[in-house]
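Thread amino acids onto this structure.
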């Protein structure tokens, strides 16, 4: 399959999300020891998460590192059950990506395209395939994130591709 037939581009890593039972322990490593900047917090009963949003880098090349703990360890989703909870990828055209991938058998997690914790439109590829959708993350939850225009432009300049 040629790249020109794909109606979207994966530009780069937008985030990684790390889960644990105690985000203060995660902060000790990522903020105190490694020096990541704490940018904000996000709490959601529906998503059973209390997270700190940290960052590496700056501008359009900034990568979020989300440090997550469950609000209730007995409820789903269990954001702490896998230490590497998910990887987020910048996408230049999220609706086109979703349509194209779904038409080719990629399984998405429930919820569709919606606004994520950082304010960008997001959706998730399911970690497990099924009979109806035989392509999935092979055990990894993958977040697709709509890149804002400045990120699309910066990555395009970096790659020498048209924006």
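Threaded sequence (163 positions):
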């Amino acid at each position: 399959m040629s790249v020109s037939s794909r109606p979207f581009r994966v530009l780069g890593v937008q985030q990684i999300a790390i889960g644990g039972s105690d985000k203060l322990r995660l902060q000790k490593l990522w903020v105190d020891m490694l020096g990541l900047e704490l940018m904000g917090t996000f709490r959601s009963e529906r998503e059973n998460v209390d997270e700190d949003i940290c960052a590496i880098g700056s501008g359009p090349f900034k990568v979020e590192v989300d440090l997550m703990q469950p609000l209730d360890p007995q409820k789903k989703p269990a954001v702490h059950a896998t230490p590497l909870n998910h990887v987020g990828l910048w996408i230049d055209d999220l609706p086109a990506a979703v349509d194209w991938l779904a038409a080719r058998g990629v399984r998405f997690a429930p919820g569709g395209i919606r606004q994520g914790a950082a304010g960008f439109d997001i959706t998730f590829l399911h970690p497990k395939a099924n009979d109806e959708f035989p392509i999935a993350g092979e055990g990894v939850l993958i977040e697709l994130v709509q890149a804002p225009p400045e990120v699309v432009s910066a990555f395009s300049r970096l790659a020498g591709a048209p924006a």
